[in-house]
Design goal:
It is a single chain. The protein is mainly alpha-helical and 196 residues long. 59% of the residues lie in helices and 0% in strands. It is built from 6 helices and no strands. The longest helix is centred in the C-terminal third of the chain and has 25 residues. It is globular, with a radius of gyration of 22 Å. The chain starts with a helix and ends in a 5-residue tail after the last helix.
Length: 196
């Protein structure tokens, strides 16, 4: 009996040591990104109704201002086929971070000019999400995992948008994409492996 207890203790101790040192992979909690040093995005799986209402007010105000202008934008900066589920789990935060950075840049410029106070709450929310998201984006992608293919294309498109798009089209693209960013893209990244 003592031999069985001793063997059991040795096995448990060995398992604890191997797991703690990373020698044996241990499943991560669901929804947590693989390299999540302080990455706490689960709180963003859904935003409060008040936060969403603030974004809706800003979008409605922007749409009213558009009705007074003649504008035409083609092609769309954020096409309907843009779906973070198409990316690997480690790529998703990178894509969302780039999308969010562009959104913040454009909305901050709009707050300085046309929409003023109506963007205060949405900008506060987006800045908070962005700061939390930055803890989830690896400083260096996993070994041998540099952005390629779809991710590389999306990152390049977002990077080039301020030079290639007119200011009006850039503003419209960002405003019309903000709900997808908040309700689909952010939720997908916050859900980690569960976003399929």
């Amino acid at each position: 009996m003592k031999l069985d207890t001793a063997v059991g203790c040795v096995l448990v101790l060995t398992a604890v040591v191997l797991t703690a040192t990373g020698a044996v992979p241990f499943p991560k909690p669901l929804g947590v990104l693989a390299d999540a040093r302080g990455c706490h995005l689960a709180q963003f799986q859904s935003l409060s109704p008040q936060e969403l209402q603030a974004f809706k007010r800003a979008k409605d105000t922007f749409e009213e201002s558009l009705s007074q202008k003649a504008w035409s934008c083609c092609p769309r900066l954020f096409p309907r086929t843009w779906d973070l589920q198409q990316l690997k789990v480690w790529e998703r935060p990178m894509a969302l971070e780039a999308e969010l950075a562009l959104t913040l840049k454009v909305l901050e410029a709009m707050a300085d000019s046309s929409l003023g106070d109506i963007l205060d709450q949405p900008l506060h929310t987006l800045r908070h999400i962005h700061s939390e998201l930055q803890a989830c984006v690896p400083a260096q992608p996993p070994a041998g995992s540099r952005p390629r293919g779809r991710l590389h294309h999306w990152l390049q498109r977002l990077h080039d948008a301020p030079e290639k798009e007119s200011l009006g089209c850039l503003e419209a693209s960002v405003m019309f994409n903000v709900f997808r960013l908040l309700t689909r893209d952010l939720k997908c990244v916050a859900s980690g492996d569960l976003c399929v």
